Amino acid sequence: MLILRSQSPRRKEILQSLGLNFQILALPIDETSLHQETPVSYLERVTLAKLGPKSEGPEDIILASDTIVVFQNKILQKPADESEAISMISELSGKTHQVFSGLGIMTKNQKIFDYDISEVEFHPWNKSEILEYIKVCKPYDKAGSYGIQDPNSPAKSFQGSYSNILGFPIRKFFLYHTLWSRFL
């Protein structure tokens, strides 16, 4: 069985679009960043923690993923409230930032971590544009307070993998196809 340890509707859609048969069994974990933790160290720790314990089934493959927005080496996670969302989008407005998505794969015998990085440039938005976006799109479940797929997204352009920005590093996932292709 292929098990996805995520509640993300975007990750679910991406895996479904590949034709994979999987089950969603997410586990709650603490996603608080540690003092002076680098973006990649944070991403690896959280992604591997999301994998949870080994599965009972010897043939099971467990997948986990985490996505962070990074601006000037600072991790921007999901906003706690409207004020935090306004602050994040304002900080990113008119600038370029990175989106890191981690991939965790666990089999009976191994744990794998890999990640991808994409870059996103934001439109230079004023406060009323930011407030309207937040009101319409309610980006409280998204790292960096935005979704590139949202109508009227603040994203102007991007470099790299679109699915990585959505929340799943599909290019990295394909590198490990021998582990999961039997679930197609």
UniProtKB/TrEMBL annotation:
GO terms for cellular component: cytoplasm. InterPro entries: ITPase-like_fam, Maf-like. Nucleoside triphosphate pyrophosphatase that hydrolyzes dTTP and UTP. May have a dual role in cell division arrest and in preventing the incorporation of modified nucleotides into cellular nucleic acids. Belongs to the Maf family. YhdE subfamily. The keyword Cytoplasm applies. This is dTTP/UTP pyrophosphatase. The lineage of its organism: Bacteria, Pseudomonadati, Spirochaetota, Spirochaetia, Leptospirales. HAMAP family: Maf. It is found in: Cytoplasm. Its cofactor is a divalent metal cation. It comes from Leptospira koniambonensis. Its main location: cytoplasm. SUPFAM superfamilies: ITPase-like. The keyword Cytoplasm applies. The active site is at D66 (proton acceptor). Keywords: Cytoplasm, Hydrolase, Nucleotide metabolism. GO terms for biological process: nucleotide metabolic process. PANTHER family: BIFUNCTIONAL DTTP/UTP PYROPHOSPHATASE/METHYLTRANSFERASE PROTEIN-RELATED (PTHR43213), BIFUNCTIONAL DTTP_UTP PYROPHOSPHATASE_METHYLTRANSFERASE PROTEIN-RELATED (PTHR43213:SF5). NCBIfam families: maf. It catalyses: dTTP + H2O = dTMP + diphosphate + H(+); UTP + H2O = UMP + diphosphate + H(+). It comes from the Bacteria. One of its GO terms (molecular function) is dTTP diphosphatase activity. The record marks R10, T67, Q149 as: Important for substrate specificity. Transmembrane segments: none annotated.
